[in-house]
Amino acid sequence: MKKKYGFYLMILAAAGIVLWLLYVRAVPKTSSNAIKSHQKLYGVTVDDSWYGKVKTADIVAALKAMPVKPTVRIVMSKDRSAKAYQPLFQKIHQVAYIMASPVDSYEMNLYKDTASYQKRFKEAYQQLSAYTDIWEIGNEVNGTDWIKQKDQLISHKLSAAYDTISSAGGKTALTFYYENPDHQHDMFRWIKRNISNHLRKTVDYSFISYYEDDNENYQPHWSSVFKKLQTLFPHSDVGIGECGNTAKKATDKSKKAMAQRYYSMPNYTSRYVGGYFWWNWVQDCVPHENNTVYKTIYHQLK
């Protein structure tokens, strides 16, 4: 009976894969103007914290006014369905590339198992693939202090999300959290232990999230950091996946100084593509008219 039961499970799993592949063939793909490999990314982040405070039209206007076509990382919340994001994705995609983040690191533990995590990505792809250029399949995935899930479970989740998106032809990204070495949380050691060789060889983008305000203003030696990252992800484009001046005491002056420092970074490797994805971009830069933080980022993109 056990052998028969296992056989039937294999049949059901295979049927599920076939149905998914048939579905994704029917889903509209992104336009021919999609991001190309090694293309420089000029990123900003849009999350849900602006609702009721800023108009979508103002966000779109600020994006449209940029001197280059930006890439907008849209961070989705668990309490909103993927379908509910369609209007926002559609409007933003008219003026920008989009990197969708269906699960932020602070909500990773709300998905208790691999199946629920994979389901989120399947639903997001079904509803948003027509507007999405890159899929962040895992955000700050080594941030176990706040994710509070076992490394093995996190690893399984990432593999499942990767399989879901890559089998449909989507581009994938992984973001890791870098810390002051004094914190004794070695990002590279965690990657070696928990990210499969297959994923390291096939994921399209490997990003680093870094917040100076959370790391005693420590300044990493970025050239060394990115060379190590590139060695671990030899076929991936690499860059900064999140940054920002998020301290409560942050001022326009400190935000401008930090934005200029990040958005003017040189090419640390042959596959370095920038990114940056300023976290509080809506709060800091919209409306954009006469906004000095917006202007600082703007001038770095020229």
TrEMBL record:
Organism phylogeny: Bacteria, Bacillati, Bacillota, Bacilli, Lactobacillales
Superkingdom of the source species: Bacteria
Protein name: Uncharacterized protein
Cited InterPro entries: GH
SUPFAM superfamilies (UniProt xref): (Trans)glycosidases (SSF51445)
Gene3D superfamilies hit by this protein: Glycosidases
